[in-house]
Amino acid sequence: MSSVEKLYNKMLRILTNEDLWMNIGLGLVKIIAIIVLSTVFLKIVKLALHNVFKVRQKTSLRISERREATLLRLLDNVLTYVVYFVVIMMILDTVGIPVTTILAGAGIVGLAVGFGAQSLVKDIITGFFIIFEDQFSVGDYVRIGNFEGYVEEIGLRTTKIKSWTGEVHILPNGSINQVTNFSLNNSIAVVDVSIAYEGDIERTENIIRELLAELPAKYEDMVKAPELLGIQNFGQSEIVLRVTCETKPMRHWFIARALRKEIKLRLDEHGIEIPFPRLVLYNRQEEAEPVQKTMKSDA
Fold this sequence. Notes:
Strand content: 15-25%
Shape: elongated
Low-confidence stretches: 293-299
């Protein structure tokens, strides 16, 4: 019998082996069952986790919304990684690959990689302390180094920051040395109002104070009524009055724009004009009265 015939007979015996096909079919069924059950388990646990956080919102044990969002997203990611790892190990065990040997080898390789991946370990440790100490959370507006924007995601290794123009900056946690968090406390809106030297300062201040007392009912982002501090500066052609208002975190820009609009409309109603730059020109060739010209700013 030739070698070709021997090989053919061997392959034929393998392909016609009922036990082999039974084992392959049983293995495929087990793998499909593992994937389906793990997917269902992952969805159920995530749903339960989200419900736990919803219940905490109604109890006295409730933590801040910003920290809840951060912890919830982090737990989702960790849970997903753990389930995927267990599924891979179960599938390898099903197909007959010794899992214990792989885990032992992975431990040795992990130890070797740990010495060469110190930056990765630093990122993970820093990420843990960022979350544990609640330095900033998802949704906070922060400044980290040269990057500024809203925190999109905090992981154990990286942090994602989205700027107001749409760019997403991905920063390794180990590189985060200083953080400025603008979302922890209330913000302050500051608005300067210019009044002409010829204007009635007392009357103008009374009109502005009357307006400021009405605004908290109109703008819910105001923590309390805006305050007119008084004269802030003497300009070249105007007196500058300063108005401040305590707002909810990161709402000071919106409230500042609203204050400028409301004050301008109210001053127009009472015939009080905001001054514009004036320039006085003298003609040396003619002995005449100074000619005063006015220039309106384009602003």
